[in-house]
Amino acid sequence: MKYTKCVICFIGLIFPLITTAILIYKYGYHFPYWDEILYLPLYDKLSQGTLSITDLFFLQNNHRPFFPRIITLGLAKITSWNEFSILYCSLIFVIAQFLILAYVIISNNEKKTDYMQSDHSKNDTIKFLNLCYMSLLLFSWSQMENWVWGLQLMMFFTNLLCILVLFVMLKYPMNVLTLLICAILTTSASYSFANGLLIWFISLPLLIYKIVKARKNYMLLLIWLLFAVAVISFYFTNYHTPSISKT
């Protein structure tokens, strides 16, 4: 009975992932599509050894996808631009998101069980349902366009960085090292997708809570704000609104 229950739980968690992996293979683009074509001149420069840091920071629509460009061009170079290597890299990023969130759910559930001494079977069921729901949500095929398009790697990567920032802030004591790690992750998100800039602000309530709760030096908050101002200011240096966005 216990073995059967474990099998059912495993299938419930892994089925959305396997389904999405198969559908990516069946429907994923086999070639750079739409705005991803803008990566081709960068790939050409990489092949010729003339690619510069400036090229990687160059605006693409409203974004400066520095880190996704490095990942995409690196995979393209290694695989002779096998588009599926990029698509499945996106899937790996989402798997990482799932593992982090699953850890949070499981560890939080165990703490509640220890303190409340509630029914273990009921807690296990709730935990399992939460994990299944999260699996269905993260690996949902409703975001099909993101799964089959290599350019959307930037979105999955930014989501992963956002989760990592909040996880590190939540899990570890707030000190200079923790703040520095979060700042590096948030900077990486900022230069992966434009929405990554918002992480500087959405993480503020948690940061303030951690500082106040631990009665830490409020200079940590000032350092975070200075990091945010510096990164955002550099982001908008020589910024111009794309013609497609003008009305």
Structural class: mainly alpha
Kindly state the number of beta strands. 0
Largest sheet: none
Order of helices and strands: HHHHHHHHHHHH
SS strand fraction:
under 5%
Shape: flat
* Distance separating the two termini: 63 Å
Runs with pLDDT <50, length 5+?
A: none
Q: Please, what is the average pLDDT? A: 87
Please work out how many helical segments DSSP would assign.
Answer: 12
Helical percentage? over 70%
Written account of the structure:
With 247 residues, the chain is mainly alpha-helical. The protein has one domain (2-245). Helices cover 72% and strands 0% of the residues. It has 12 helices and no strands. It has helices at residues 2-27, 39-48, 53-57, 66-79, 83-116, 120-138, 144-148, 153-171, 176-190, 199-202, 204-214, 219-235. Helix 1 (2-27) runs antiparallel to helix 5 (83-116). The longest helix is centred in the middle third of the chain and has 34 residues, at 83-116. The chain is flat. The model has no long low-confidence stretch (mean pLDDT 87).
